[in-house]
Write a structure and sequence with these properties.
The complex is a heterodimer of chains A (182) and B (166). Chain A is of the alpha/beta class and 182 residues long. Chain A contains five helices and seven strands. The longest helix of chain A is centred in the first third of the chain and has 26 residues. Classes of the chains: A alpha/beta (182), B mainly alpha (166).
């Protein structure tokens, strides 16, 4: 009997929470549609990529010549994709890289993926995984790996990500340039 | 210490401690989700357990249940009902995490706002939630209305109608 009355009270708390949640959600600027208009499937990525498709910074001994091809352990015609914001890109990037600002919630456009499909290799990089508040912490899924995974799902089968990102690249002796990409 | 003293002092004190701790955990967990409902919706969707049509309603409702239940648990209003709700949520979270682990999903649990600082879900996450569930069950069965607002309300009502003991 006591448990039944607890269930009844719990029900009222849930009803109150539902009412408050609806009112607050309606009033806020970043409100959520009650029913999602688009599927969340596009936002959910599997962990990426497999070990063999992770590029290491040491494999890029020097920045690629103008136009994109990268020397070192990569095939001729490898395209470097800088997944950071345009502001970060303009402050410094690997020479020859193309800027594809990536927001994991928005995804990447099909046109971009189509443009990369015929490349021998595509290497995506970001800042270097670190949490701003604590450099010791690393993202479980760095944005570059998410972008690489999404590109792979869109048919860019040679997409990989640079382990450790731009930070590891610089630490391994790689140079960066500050001019805008061609 | 006699059994009677344990019943009168130790158990209510432990109950209060468990209520404050568990309530605080749920309030903190709710805060980030309320601040960024979209982020929380994506976290829910990542578990791939709910159809898309239920993801947003869950993202809107659940943080407020957590917040209200947490506040009322600490205050001691309908305490056992709040403990029941919190236990039900913990069971739901445990099922979701075990399900994700069983499907080898490498993801963060989405339990708190500091998403980036959270490690991937693991059996340690299951153990943590299991410990919280243990606390919740303890509160449900041990709570006798000590250090609770509802007891104060009952005392006040009795006093108004002149009942003995008020």
């Amino acid at each position: 009997m006591k448990m039944l009355s607890d269930v009844g009270r719990a029900f009222w708390v849930v009803a109150l929470a539902f009412a408050v949640g609806l009112v607050v959600n309606t009033a806020r600027s970043n409100r959520l549609d009650f029913i999602a208009r688009e599927s969340y499937d596009n936002l959910i990525f599997q962990p990426c990529p497999e070990t063999e498709s992770v590029a290491s910074a040491q494999q890029i001994p020097e920045a690629g010549s103008k136009g994109g091809p990268v020397a070192g352990g990569f095939a001729q015609g490898t395209v470097l994709v800088d997944a950071r914001t345009p502001e970060a890109f303009s402050q410094g990037h690997i020479e020859g890289a193309v800027n594809v600002p990536y927001d994991e919630l928005s995804g990447v456009s099909k046109d971009v993926a189509d443009g990369l499909k015929d490349k021998p290799a595509v290497v995506v990089y970001c800042d270097g995984w670190e949490d701003e508040t604590d450099p010791a912490l690393r993202y479980a899924n760095p944005p570059s790996s998410l972008l690489a995974d999404e590109l792979r799902s869109l048919g860019v089968t040679n997409a990989t990500f640079l382990e450790g990102g731009l930070k590891a690249y610089v630490e391994s002796g790689g140079a960066i340039v500050t001019k805008a990409a061609p | 210490m006699s059994t009677r003293a344990i019943r009168r002092l130790v158990v209510p004190s432990l109950d209060l401690g468990a209520r404050v701790y568990l309530g605080s955990v749920f309030i903190m967990a709710a805060w980030g989700k309320i601040a960024d409902p979209y982020e929380f919706a994506v976290s829910i969707a990542t578990y791939q357990m709910l159809p898309d049509s239920l993801v947003n309603p869950m993202a809107i409702l659940l943080p407020w249940v957590e917040l209200i239940a947490g506040v009322l648990l600490i205050a001691g209003l309908w305490t056992r009902a709040q403990a029941m709700l919190i236990n039900a949520m913990l069971v739901m979270f445990l099922v979701a995490i075990v399900w994700a682990l069983a499907h080898d999903l490498k993801m963060q649990c989405g339990c708190f706002a500091s998403e980036e600082a959270e490690a991937d879900i693991s059996w340690a996450t299951v153990a943590r939630d299991g410990a919280w569930l243990g606390l919740g069950v303890f509160v449900y069965f041990a709570n006798r209305g000590r250090f609770a607002l509802e007891t104060l309300c009952t005392w006040w009502q009795n006093r108004r109608v002149g009942m003995p003991g008020a």
